[in-house]
Specification:
The structure holds two protein chains of two kinds.
Chain A: E1 3-6, E2 10-12, E3 18-25, E4 34-39, E5 46-51, E6 58-60, E7 68-73, E8 78-83, E9 92-100, E10 103-107, E11 111-115
Parallel strand pairs in A: 2-11
Antiparallel strand pairs in A: 1-3, 3-8, 4-5, 4-9, 5-6, 7-8, 9-10, 9-11
Chain B: E1 9-12, E2 18-23, E3 33-37, E4 44-47, E5 61-66, E6 69-74, E7 83-91, E8 96-99, E9 103-107
Parallel strand pairs in B: 1-9
Antiparallel strand pairs in B: 2-6, 3-4, 3-7, 5-6, 7-8, 7-9
The chains are: A mainly beta, B mainly beta.
Chain lengths: ~120, ~110
């Protein structure tokens, strides 16, 4: 069965970077885009961007342009999201999502990122 | 970019019908997708492309989309339906996903 498993919680200081991994199994990794969505505590869902695992092509929300990088390693069916210049309002749960075209079919369990001095 | 508007909360008694709406300019021309998120859990897809249920989603949940409003309908509401529900579209003009603000369904 399809599994989407993310790396564990992170605590970072302001200005630092964080990299979240998203390991997939149970399907052909290169056949489906991976999107990243975040959710601050008590807030709604915020789309961050996507990566095409086959070509490595990416697309980012304007809000995160210049601060986010989405990559993948096809050999281990894993996608990565790196966010730099962390601020306190980047504290959130980060989700990776296996996409079926315009929507998210399988969500990871989430990775809690806390930014605190 | 495209804006989706949802009411913050909807309340319904068990056994009744809940209707959760998602408003957007001519949203009927877009494909709308719905997610359910229970406290402490990741969202799950409950309806995609306006009215299609993934396998395992009860028939009590259904979707529709026309004009400026998409609707997720939950018939015979149960306590286990209490959750936040989000609508989402792919905005082709900006090539990005757009989410509504979410609606909290309370079962009285």
């Amino acid at each position: 069965q399809v599994q989407v498993v993310q790396s564990g919680a992170e605590v970072k200081k302001p200005g630092a970077s964080v990299r979240v991994s998203c390991k997939t199994s149970g399907y052909t990794f290169v056949s489906y885009d991976i999107h990243w969505v975040r959710q601050a505590a008590g807030q709604g869902l915020e789309w961050m961007g996507w990566v095409n695992p086959n070509s490595g092509t990416t697309g980012y929300a304007q809000k995160f342009q210049g601060r986010v990088s989405m990559t993948r390693n096809t050999a281990i069916s894993t996608a990565y999201m790196e966010l730099s210049g962390l601020k306190s309002d980047d504290s959130a749960m980060y989700y990776c999502v296996r996409a079926f075209g315009g929507y998210g079919g399988n969500w990871g369990q989430g990775t809690l990122v806390t930014v605190s001095s | 970019s495209f804006v989706l508007t949802q009411a913050p909360s909807v309340s319904v008694a068990p056994g009744q019908t809940a209707r959760i709406t998602c408003g957007g300019d001519n949203i009927g021309s877009q494909s709308v997708h719905w997610y359910q998120q229970k406290p402490g859990q990741a969202p799950i897809l409950v309806v995609y492309t306006d009215d299609i249920r993934p396998s395992g989603i009860p028939e009590r949940l259904s979707g529709s989309n026309s004009g400026n409003t998409a609707t997720l309908t939950i018939d015979r509401v149960e306590a286990g339906d209490e959750a936040d529900y989000y609508c989402q579209v792919w905005d082709s003009s900006s090539d990005q996903w757009v989410f509504g603000g979410g609606t909290k369904l309370a079962v009285l």
